[in-house]
Amino acid sequence: MRYILETNRLILRELHPNDAKSFYNLNSNPNVIKYTGNVAFKNEEEATEFLVNYQDYKLNGYGRWAVILKSTNTFIGWCGLKFDGVENETDIGFRFFEEEWGKGYATESAIACLQYGFEKLKLKRIIGRAMKANIGSIKVLEKIGLEYESDTQLDGKDAVIYKIEKPDSADL
Predict the structure, then answer these.
(1) What pTM does this model have?
(2) Rounded CA gap, 171 and 117, in Å?
(3) Element housing 27 (H / E)
(4) 146 vs 169, more confident
(5) Which long-range contacts (CB under 8 A, 24 or more apart) does 91-95 make?
(6) Each residue's pLDDT tens digit, 97-131
(7) Is residue 164 a contact partner of residue 145, using CB atoms and an 8 Å limit?
(8) CA-CA distance, 165 to 89, in Å (whole number)?
(9) What pLDDT, on the 0 to 100 scale, is given for residue 116?
(10) What is the DSSP string of 87-154?
(11) What average pLDDT score do residues 85-93 get?
């Protein structure tokens, strides 16, 4: 498992099939996937299959990363960048266990991902998508510096697109 980033409290590393149980449990909570358009995995094996077939790292050099709490070495969710070949853009996303909400982990990991995207990957622009009803995720996008760009639809629901452009090197 390749480590990508480290923050004060977190380690971000590539997702691995060994994460299947945690990944399955994360997506099993209806509150966690309420605004994602995703359905829960049927079982742990389906989560394993997803992780085995996850190709973003090979195809794009980056993707969604497991977020590990340093103090306990526990998988608490994921955060990362995802390239959308259709739209030719990269989005930032995050998903955490409900008991970890409100602790700043999404903000902390997402800031690290933005810096990685701009500094290491030389991206010029990163977007964030969220359903309008997902106030928590929208607050995180705003907190990490993204600005409202436009309304859109995600899985047939009203949503928004936020964006951030590569800051001047003096701002990093």
Answers:
(1) 0.94
(2) 15
(3) helix 20-28
(4) 146
(5) 91/126, 91/127, 91/128, 91/129, 92/117, 92/126, 92/127, 92/128, 92/141, 92/144, 92/146, 93/64, 93/128, 93/129, 94/67, 94/137, 94/140, 95/26, 95/27, 95/32, 95/33, 95/36
(6) 999 999 999 999 999 999 999 999 999 999 999 99
(7) yes
(8) 12
(9) 97
(10) TTEEEEEEEE-GGGTTSSHHHHHHHHHHHHHHHTS--SEEEEEEETT-HHHHHHHHHTT-EEEEEEEE
(11) 93
The Cα 47–Cα 125 span in angstroms is: 31
Angle, CA 62 vertex, CA 58 and CA 68 arms, to 5°: 115
What is the C-alpha to C-alpha distance for residues 161 and 149, in angstroms, rounded to an integer? Answer: 6
- Token reading at 165: 């452009």
